[in-house]
Design a protein that fits this description.
With 81 residues, the chain is mainly beta. It has one domain (3-74). Helices cover 14% and strands 37% of the residues. It is built from one helix and four strands. It has one helix at 56-66; strands spanning 3-10, 16-23, 28-36, 41-45. It has a four-stranded antiparallel sheet, with helices on one face. Strand 1 (3-10) and strand 2 form a beta hairpin.
Length: 81
């Protein structure tokens, strides 16, 4: 199932990001990704992408409640999308 990234939030130190996405069936979800310097790529941490959420706003609220650093506005950049 294809996912379209709707919002991206980057941790202020650049080591993690959260992507809020929409699935083909119009539900939303999110994933926290960590940057692996040795691999030079991002990989998921946690299993948040399994959540089925009804709206973009609710997906953002859910991510802020589950991803500790995202709940702290001083620890991340404004949304990137």
């Amino acid at each position: 199932m294809e996912k379209i990234i709707k919002e991206t939030f980057m941790k202020s130190d650049g080591t993690r990001k959260v992507e809020i996405f929409q699935r083909e069936n119009k539900t939303f979800g999110f994933e926290e990704l960590e940057f692996g310097f040795e691999e030079n790529s991002c990989y998921p941490v946690g299993e948040y992408s399994l959540a089925i959420i009804d709206s973009l706003d609710n997906a953002i609220r859910e991510a802020e409640g589950r991803v500790i650093w995202l709940g702290n506005p001083d620890d991340h950049s404004p949304k990137l999308n």
